[in-house]
Amino acid sequence: MKRFLAAILLTSAPVNAQVSSTAAPVANSSGSVTNQAVQVVPSRQYTWNYGSANVSCQGSTLNINPFLTTTTGWSTPTEHYYDNPVYDNSDIEGAFDPEGNPIPDGVPDRPGHVLYYQPVRTGQKTNFSVNGGITATISIPLDRHHVKLCRQAAEKQVKLFEAQLADKRLNYEIARLKNCAKLLKDGVMFHPESPFSAICADVILTNPPGVLPPHIHPIPKVSVNDVAQELHDSSHVEQESDPAKQ
C-alpha cells in the first residue's frame, strides 16, 4: 500500500526543469599509423674455387646492406578547414509555472536551428618521411673440421699451380736459349734498337768444352845460320847423352 501511494505522488506532482545550454567548440582529431618493415634475407656464403680439381671452400661471411626508404601520405580531397554548425539549444519557454509565467520545459525552443558556423581546422597535410639504416648478417660454417681440410687441399692446389707455372717457364727459357743460340751461330740477330732485341740480349755464345776457338800463332823468322847452329847444338847434346858413341 505504501509503495502504491508513493508511485501516485511521483506521477502526479508537476516537475519544473531548468535547462541551460552553452555552445562549446567541437574538436576533431584524426591520425594514421604507418608500419614499415625491412626484411633481411640471408644470402649464400661466398665460395672460393681452386682449379679443375673442384676444390671449393666456404668461409665466414659478413653482409652489410644499407637501405633508404621514403614514405609519402596525403588526403584527397584536401580540406584545410570545415564549418562546424552551432545549434540553438536555448530553452526559455514551453511550460508555465503555477502563476502562469512561461518557464523552460526541457525541450529546445528552436530545435535544428543553426546559430552560426564555426571553422574547424582539419589538420590535413602531406606527410613525407625518409628512413635509413643498415642491416648486417654474419654467416659462420659450423663444421670447422671440413673447412680446415678444404683449406689444406686449397694450399696444395696452389703449390701445384706454382710448380706447373715454373715448369712452363723453364721450357720457355730453354726454348728461347736454343733459338737465340742457333740464330747467333748463323750470324742473325735483332737490331739493337728493335723492341725485340731484349729477347736474346742475355744469351751469350761460347765454345763447347774441348773445342778450341779459332786462333792465330805468330811464326818467328829464322835464318840459315840459326838453323845450322840449332842442328849442331842438337847433335852435340845427343853425343853427350849417348856414351856408346864417344
Question: What is the secondary structure topology, with strand pairs?
Answer:
Layout lengths: L1 H11 L34 E4 L4 E4 L2 E13 L7 E7 L6 E3 L5 E3 L9 E8 L5 E13 L4 H42 L38 H18 L5
Antiparallel strand pairs: 1-2, 3-8, 4-7, 5-6
Concise description?
29% of the residues lie in helices and 22% in strands.
Give a written overview of the molecule.
This protein is an alpha+beta fold and 246 residues long. Among the domains are: 44-74 and 127-190, no CATH class; 75-125, no CATH class. Helices cover 29% and strands 22% of the residues. It is built from 3 helices and 8 strands. It has helices spanning 2-12, 144-185, 224-241, and strands spanning 47-50, 55-58, 61-73, 81-87, 94-96, 102-104, 114-121, 127-139. It has a two-stranded antiparallel sheet. The chain has a two-stranded antiparallel sheet with strand order 3-8. The longest helix is centred in the C-terminal third of the chain and has 42 residues, at 144-185. The protein is rod-shaped and about 200 Å long. The relative contact order is 0.12. Mean pLDDT is 79; it is low at 15-21.
Task: Looking at this protein, list some descriptive labels.
246 residues; alpha+beta; two-stranded antiparallel sheet; two-stranded antiparallel ribbon; 8 strands; 22% strand; rod-shaped
